[in-house]
Every structure is written in structure tokens, then in C-alpha cells.
Design brief:
The chain is α/β, with parallel strands linked by helices. The protein has one domain: 5'-nuclease (Rossmann fold). The chain is 57% helix and 11% strand. The chain contains seven helices and five strands. The chain has helices at 8-15, 21-30, 40-48, 52-62, 72-88, 96-108, 117-125; strands at 4-6, 36-38, 66-67, 111-114, 131-133. A five-stranded parallel β-sheet has the order 3-2-1-4-5. Strand 4, helix 7 (117-125) and strand 5 (131-133) form a beta-alpha-beta unit.
Length: 136
């Protein structure tokens, strides 16, 4: 079964009921909820930006997902390599956390679903990253 690691850039649109490509794609993926996975950096980003009732809603949704955890011995090193390779290509990644998320997606063979230009820059230097951009 395919696994889809949904980035916080998509989750934000989903959890705030913002119409658009992210919401539409999530509805498609949610038809088979076992294929949706997450990782600690995505959880961290979402928790950091929410409070009150919104945080409770986030927790209730995310606690039901399968976790693709960080493997420190692999993911931190690969994330640093990704960051460096993007810089060598002449671009900048705004968040090293995105490199860590991409590293987890590569290692676990998950398809990274996002709305973030950083991941497009990362994918340009990481042929093993399978991603689905919802940028318009």
C-alpha cells in the first residue's frame, strides 16, 4: 500500500477548512485513511502554530495517524546533505525542518504531499524523493 506523508502546509489548509487543491486531495486520500502517515517534525510544526480548540482538533486528527518516526542515525545526516545540495544548486531552503521531513519520506518510501516551494527545491536535488506538489 502506498503511504502519503502530508506536510503541515497541506494540513493547515485541511484543518482550517480552506477550499482548494489541498482540501480536495486530502478528501481523496482520506477515502483510505491507513495510507496517510505523519512524522514528528510535521506534528511539531502543527502543534507550535495552534492553541485552544484548534489545538484539540489537531490532536484528535493527528493522534489517529500512523507515525513514520525519525531515525536519528540516518535522517539528520541525510537532511543536512539535502540542505547542502540545494544550496550548491544555487537555491535556499527556508527551513531545515523541511529537509528532515523529506529525509523521512525518502527513507520510508512515502510520497510527500505538500504546498511548499522548499520541497520543490529539495526534489530537484533528491531523485529518490517522491513528492506531490499542490502549489498552484
Amino acid at each position: 500500500m502506498k503511504a502519503y506523508l502530508i506536510d503541515s502546509s497541506v494540513w493547515i489548509d485541511v484543518l482550517t477548512d480552506r477550499p482548494g487543491a489541498a482540501q480536495d486531495r486530502f478528501v481523496e486520500l482520506a477515502a483510505e485513511p491507513d495510507q496517510i502517515v505523519t512524522t514528528e517534525p510535521v506534528l511539531m510544526e502543527l502543534r507550535a502554530g495552534a492553541n485552544g480548540l484548534r489545538r484539540l482538533r489537531i490532536e484528535s486528527v493527528l493522534n489517529r495517524l500512523r507515525l513514520r518516526g525519525i531515525d536519528p542515525a540516518i535522517d539528520f545526516h541525510y537532511a543536512a546533505d539535502l540542505y547542502r545540495n540545494v544550496r550548491i544548486s544555487g537555491h535556499t531552503v527556508r527551513s531545515m525542518v523541511d529537509c528532515l521531513i523529506a529525509s523521512v519520506a525518502v527513507r520510508t518510501e512515502a510520497i510527500l504531499v505538500h504546498r511548499d516551494r522548499d520541497f520543490e527545491r529539495i526534489a530537484a536535488v533528491a531523485s529518490d524523493l517522491r513528492s506531490e506538489s499542490l502549489l498552484t
